[in-house]
Amino acid sequence: MPPFPRLALAAALTLGAAGVAQAATVTSVEIRGLDEPMTINVRTSLSLVDAIGKDLSGRRLGYLLREAENETREALEPFGYYSPTIQVEDTRSGGSARGPGATPAADADAPTNAEAAANAEPSPADSAVATPSEAIARAERANANRPATPDPNDPNAPAPRSNAKVVVVITVDKGEPVRVRRSDVAILGAGSEDRYLKEDLAAFKPDVGEVFNHAIYEAAKTKITRRLAERGYFDADFTSRRVEVTRAERAADVDLVWSSGDRYDMGPITFEQTPKRIIRDSLLDKLVYWEQGSYYHQGKLDRFRESLARLDYFASIDIEPQPENAVDGEVPVKVTLTPAKRSIYTAGLSFGTDSGAGVRMGVERRYVNDRGHKALAQVDWAEKRKTATLQYRIPAFTWLDGWYTFSAQLADEQTDYIDSRRIEIVASRSGQIDRHWNATASVHVLRERWAYAIDDDDDASTPVDYRSATFTYPSLRAEYVNADDRIYPRNAFGATVMLRGGVEGAGSDASFAQAHASARWYRGMGARSRLIARGELGHTFTDALIDMPPSLRFFAGGDRSIRGYAWREVGPRIPGNDGKQYALGAKNVATGSIEFEQYFNDSWGAAVFVDSGSAFDGTPDWRTGVGVGLRWRSPVGPLRVDIARGINDPDSGFQLYLNIGADL
């Protein structure tokens, strides 16, 4: 017989003689005696977990069980537990229960004759390579007294072999943790006198007597390292970085010392606009509020980045301090700016029960010229309500970063209860006071003409008795927002206050003063729940309400007011041509809302809410609506679909509301 077939036959006979050692399958690994973070860390570290569901030989399973104790011990050290007591047990269906010191069952783990032969130390006689004839002979001898298939009628025959199902239980007694015995944490050099670095050193954790938790230690160490860089200590480095753990004494000695070096100052700033320059550098220089040579701080660059982003001229902003190029301790800063698309075109369809079907089109020029001026034109054209808006903005830097804005708007409303046309011209100055407050001061010139359907006697020969009014008045608006997340806040408060008023004979047909305030409050409740409260108050001081045009009156009803009622349904009303009642507008408004949201996963949730309030001249006539909603956290902001019903004689049945966008 040729050599290759004889070798193949020898291998086949050898495998047939050896058989297959009983395999086992780990079905689950349970970890007991630990809290959730420790359990997660142990489970992540266990090789046994990776083997769940796989067929394992007895030898491989035994190795993984032995390694489980070491892996568990190492996974607990970051939490400060260096001497735990660990018991690893496995229970096998169709097999036997084993502890860490148990003797393996022969049927489960003992190697077959072939396995024993394969793992035995070779004798001198066996050290030479066997010929094919010798291999075949050994295989035949090994298989001579072993039946290929057990006789099912033989009571002494071994039971058929099958995979054992293994459940592994790891029970841990953490024992006493290692605590900080000595802590020598310091900064040498100029940084030793820095007030903020001193505060970080005083707050360093873990402190003497506390459990030596690796994560807390690393976080505190990283915080100081970053603070040194943020405050301009670019030459800072460790002179000592050592932690000695004595297991027997359950003690850790911390020796952590930085050398700060000298503090750098702010150097010259250069701008590079690529691929082309769109804004003159002199305009951008006005955003640099620090003096060259003042102390370096990363917060200055962060605020500068925010100012550049608010201009909305650039698609990307890269601010790079270059301490390696410092001259006389001054760090140069390079700013690389990539222009954003110059023109933004918008288009959309709309539908409202009062306005009918409509279309919206607009165009905005982010930068009209290299002085950073902006322009906007927009048209909203619906069946019963139309508006056209023109706006021009100029960047402003005196006192507060913001904008000078000039706008004009024309509006035409032809509904079943009113015929209204107005033109309003506004000049304003906006600015950011701080990270929470924004303010806008403006002057308005309003010319409005209106007539209600009840004023029309249906006689074509009789002209409609239009009312008209002109008001020139100043306005001040302030907005406050403090939120953990502007798109989906869980802990936030936002408020808006508006004051405006005019004087008869000074550009206004009547004297009035008006105050309006609104607020929204968010509070997270659990991992996927939150409570939302909203309120609104408004009052008009005037003795000539009849002379006030509809655009200067208060209304209630609809989304973000009182859900369950149609838009502007709540308040003093008059009949329309269709016999329905329509809002007239009021001197005062007061509304409130409580809403609870529960998300089922990271994207989808539901809400229940109660809204109440009124728009009124004298005594309020309160209206309340209740409803439910669907929530979806879309890529562009929360999508809200609400269905609500008024419980105080609403004109219509259930109301449907659809909103998308940021909550604040």
Structural summary, described in words:
This protein has a 16-stranded antiparallel beta sheet, with no helix packed on it. Strands 2-1-4-3 form a four-stranded mixed beta sheet. The protein has a three-stranded mixed beta sheet with strand order 5-7-6, with no helix packed on it. The protein is 18% helix and 43% strand. The protein has helices spanning 3-18, 36-45, 47-50, 58-76, 106-109, 113-119, 132-144, 195-202, 214-230, 281-285, 298-311, and strands spanning 24-32, 55-56, 85-93, 164-173, 179-188, 237-246, 251-259, 265-273, 314-321, 330-339, 343-352, 356-365, 374-382, 385-396, 402-414, 418-432, 437-452, 467-483, 491-502, 512-524, 529-541, 573-575, 581-583, 588-599, 604-616, 623-634, 637-646, 655-660. Strand 11 (343-352) and strand 12 (356-365) form a beta hairpin. The longest helix has 19 residues, at 58-76. The chain is α+β, with helices and mostly antiparallel strands and 664 residues long. It is built from eleven helices and 28 strands.
> What coarse outline follows from CA principal-axis ratios?
globular
Rg, Cα atoms, Å = 39 Å
Question: Uncertain spans, ≥5 residues at pLDDT below 50?
Answer: 3-21, 94-150, 157-161
Assign a percent range to the helix content: 10-25%
- Give the beta-strand count: 28
Distance between the termini: 87 Å
Determine the number of helices (DSSP H or I, runs of at least 4 residues): 11
Strand order of the largest sheet: 11-12-13-14-15-16-17-18-19-20-21-24-25-26-27-28
Give a short account of the largest sheet.
16 strands, antiparallel
Mean pLDDT level: 85
- Structural category is alpha+beta
> Strand share of the residues?
35-45%
